[in-house]
Design brief:
The protein is of the alpha+beta class. Helix content is about 35%, strand content about 30%. The radius of gyration is 26 Å and the shape is elongated.
């Protein structure tokens, strides 16, 4: 057999075949690994995960999640928070997507739904659906307003979220680095909801312009 560099021996053909086989097998293994990682973490979309700060990639934080990595972009970080290598960190999984042979997991610490998941984790009545988080507005790192309602007239939605001596809400506040959380009672009547939302301010009158 004649190649571009002259006659080729059988040994040469064997080495070429072995290299080709190695490349093909490597490609198959990488694709299989990608599928395993995607399947494993795809079910965690819009859920909470805990990882370890692994390294800094510019302004992005790379978080070690078991056998793979997640990315906490600058715009998903909380203003004022600092992240140090080795720190344990709780994040919300915004998206899991395939990019070529890799799986990219986008994380967030500032997403409003991170707070919803924390309420579900810390407050049994929310997890069971007895208390519903109807509305939520978050300025990450500073303040959040949560409007809650109860399907059971015997259950006070604010009391359930706050907990005995504030223990439940304190766990959430601590996880968010001291972010202030106001819990108000939801109402279908705009006038009542506005008064609740603006507390502790005293409202003298409200005029609605449809």
């Amino acid at each position: 057999v004649t190649g571009p560099d002259g006659p080729m021996k059988l040994d040469d053909l064997g080495r070429i075949a072995a290299q080709t086989a190695k490349q093909v097998i490597g490609q198959i293994l990488r694709e299989a690994e990608r599928e395993v990682i995607f399947s494993e973490y795809d079910r965690f979309q819009r859920q909470l995960v805990t990882g370890t700060v692994y390294r800094m990639d510019g302004t992005n934080v790379v978080v070690q999640l078991g056998k793979t990595e997640g990315y906490l972009p600058k715009h998903e970080q909380v203003r004022g928070e600092t992240y140090r290598i080795g720190d344990r960190i709780l994040c919300y999984v915004v998206e899991v997507k395939k990019i070529g042979n890799r799986v990219k997991i986008i994380l967030s610490r500032s997403h409003p739904d991170m707070l919803r998941r924390l309420f579900e984790r810390e407050i049994p009545e929310v997890a069971d659906g007895v208390v519903e988080i109807v509305g939520l507005v978050r300025e990450a790192g500073y303040k959040t307003k949560v409007a809650a309602s109860s399907l059971d007239p015997k259950v006070d939605p604010i009391g359930a979220c706050v907990g005995v001596r504030g223990t439940r809400i304190k766990n959430i506040i601590d996880e968010l680095g001291g972010e202030k959380i106001d819990i108000i009672k939801w109402s279908d009547e705009p006038e009542v909801l506005i008064v609740n939302a603006l507390k502790p301010a005293q409202i003298n009158s409200i005029t609605l312009y449809e």
